[in-house]
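in:
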């Protein structure tokens, strides 16, 4: 509803965001959360349709399963939730946040 795109960063154990009402560049993208324990392999996410929308993230240890090193004595699956307004608070994805201007590539002068 707010034009925010959320995406998983599986290899970085984090969830990112981009406000689609801004230009697309690395500077206009934020990190909602990064955690090597609770977001270990965040492989799926969803935004619900409730009036107060929430971001739902499924995190698991699929990579450990694939390499036959899954430990049944550890927490191997997590379902995490966070209200979307709270998720983007303090990031460049927050509505009204100042997004840094894009940097123009500097080409070396030709001689």
């Amino acid at each position: 509803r707010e034009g925010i795109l959320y995406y998983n960063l599986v290899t970085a154990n984090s969830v990112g965001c981009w406000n689609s009402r801004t230009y697309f560049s690395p500077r206009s993208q934020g990190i909602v959360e990064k955690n090597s324990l609770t977001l270990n392999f965040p492989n799926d996410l969803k935004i619900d349709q409730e009036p107060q929308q929430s971001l739902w993230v499924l995190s698991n240890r699929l990579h450990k399963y694939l390499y036959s090193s899954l430990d049944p004595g550890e927490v191997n699956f997590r379902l995490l939730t966070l209200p979307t307004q709270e998720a983007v608070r303090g990031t460049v994805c927050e509505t009204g946040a100042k997004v840094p201007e894009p940097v123009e590539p500097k080409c070396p002068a030709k001689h």
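note: The radius of gyration is 17 Å.
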